[in-house]
Amino acid sequence: MTANARELADGFDIENLTPQFYADPYPTYRALRQHAPVKRLRNGLYFLTRYDDLVAAYKTTKVFSSDKKKEFLPKYGDSPLYEHHTTSLVFNDPPAHTRVRRLIMGALSPRAIAEMEPNLIALVDRLLDRLAAKGQGGMQVDLIDDFAAAIPIEVIGNLLDVPEAERGPLRNWSLAILGALEPVISAQAFTRGNNAVTEFLEYLKALVARRRARPGNPERDVLTRLIQGEDNGERLTEKELLHNCIFLLNAGHETTTNLIGNGLVALSEQPSQKQRLIEHPELIRTAVEEILRFESSNQLGNRMTTEAVELGGVMLASGTPVTLCIGAANRDPAQFTDPENLDVGRTPNRHLAFATGAHQCAGMVLARLEGAIAISRYLARFPDYALNGAPLRGGRARFRGFLSVPCAV
Ligand code: HEM
Question: Which of 130, 162, 163, 197 shows a CA-CA span of 20 to 30 A to 65?
């Protein structure tokens, strides 16, 4: 085991990940934490896997910068993908980040999100009715297409008040744009990502023009709120507005789909935890946190050092790119008891699935609500659900989830 773990740690190469890694990255993460927690990779990047090191990097915003203008230039050149990713708040530092974040946080207030709950319950119940009808008709049910992915599309669509008939392309645009953030991308993925940004921008320009002409209720409609800005005169430029709307629409899609999909698959694979949650539905809040920890939808984050700094006993020069492995930190035995086991009642559970520090996920209250309603109502309606064939993984290192999960309800 030890020799094997050392080989895994020594051989780890983010530019050449194996099918075994995509299927189950956790043995590699364990080996890295144990033998090379601040590992220098061939391409000069440092890969961090310890919980405490990730927290230190996330919390020291000045030294661990999120600004990607330098890093993305060789990857994307002067392209729509470059403009998009370097304009979105997640890849900027203060003061640009602070301005945009304040406006977005104002629009995603806990009150606005609590008001969404009745509609969200109604949406989930409609989807469950459809699943039941499909199952009774002897048709194959897909946990992702028919359920997990259908929820965030509607929720984010409602948040920006995108007309229902226009939501069709949102998911594929989102998959293409976020897919281009993988450590290595093919020429096709690059073209797909650029086309998606261009088409998305075209669409949003028209939507924003319509909304300017007929504003919605800024208490409910995030797009109207972002267009109007703050009372103190703070406004987004047109470019910031369009790219941050794309980011918002993307940020909440795949991640939340994966929370719901990963959760229902993990529970079906661990019948005792599934049964415990069915018998104690009041555990749903801790169960959602545990799913976020155990199979984090977003496994990797990136930062670049702005000065020489010591981290985990290793000196990093100024300008060093670092990858923060959330998936590994969330199973660090120095932070979590029995970390490789799913425990739906786990407390405390200070996982890093939403990161921490200045860039901590701005949509986490909404994501938690979606996860809790979707998973609890699914379990209540189909307590005997079972996988019906092998689930198909998304094949991504950054966004961990399934493309399809055949299921019998
Ligand atoms: C399970 C679902 C989700 C997960 C696991 C997740 C995870 C994350 C993580 C890890 C970050 C920090 C990235 C970094 O700095 O490196 C982040 C940022 C962000 N997320 Fe989420 N997210 C989820 C859902 C959502 C939703 C539903 C929304 C919006 C509706 C959202 C909006 C954002 C925004 C705006 C940021 C950027 C914050 C900033 O840079 O200040 N996320 N998310």
Answer: 197
